[in-house]
């Protein structure tokens, strides 16, 4: 897999390069700012870009803005965003731009090598991966919003796991439910969100987007 890394911390950047290289990935560029990221993606055409939210010169939202622009210009490139803190509005903004090929993790998760590498593979393959802490904070905020307030506690748990990119089987395993029970809860979420079976769009994606945009 070809990967571009944009991270201003030399220590973390080199650590990620070493980790990915050790596990057989090709890091085509490792840069420290948003301009370098966009240039590297346009030149290298990677499968994935790993992007820090805050980068020079102001260390506010350069990374996330570059990630949004990157996805618009290069939709075939997956984007895995790394953040020191939970900033759910950034995650919601990026997920609203796309239906896949996106991940948002706290930097602490990089230390869990297996989970980090699994996220890299999932996002590069077009999947969505959200840090559980990010999803939790979005859920806390979303409970006050119309539509989501009508969900039962179990339905909210199921929707949260859907937002993390888990399959029905994984949700069933996590919550110790049968496959049929998970399908019933998801169907109820669709109904409460007004997502009918005859819609031409993916109801699962629409439900997750509703959750993240709340």
What this model shows, in words?
The protein is an alpha/beta fold and 214 residues long. The mean pLDDT is 86. 53% of the residues lie in helices and 14% in strands. A 6-stranded parallel sheet has the order 2-1-3-4-5-6, sandwiched between helices.
What are its keywords?
214 residues, alpha/beta, Rossmann fold, six-stranded parallel sheet, 10 helices, 6 strands, 14% strand
Rg estimate, integer Å: 18 Å
The fourth-level CATH homologous superfamily of the largest domain is Response regulator
What general outline do the C-alpha atoms trace?
elongated
The strands making up the biggest β-sheet line up spatially as 2-1-3-4-5-6
Overall pLDDT level: 86
End-to-end Cα distance? 34 Å
What portion of residues belong to β-strands?
Answer: 5-15%
Largest sheet at a glance? 6 strands, parallel
The CATH class assignment of the largest domain is Alpha Beta
Order of helices and strands: EHEHEHEHEHEHHHHH
What do we call the CATH topology of the largest domain?
Answer: Rossmann fold
Per DSSP E runs of 2 or more residues, the count of β-strands stands at: 6
Helix content: 40-55%
Q: What would you say the CATH architecture of the largest domain is?
A: 3-Layer(aba) Sandwich
The low-confidence runs, each spanning 5 or more residues with pLDDT under 50, are none
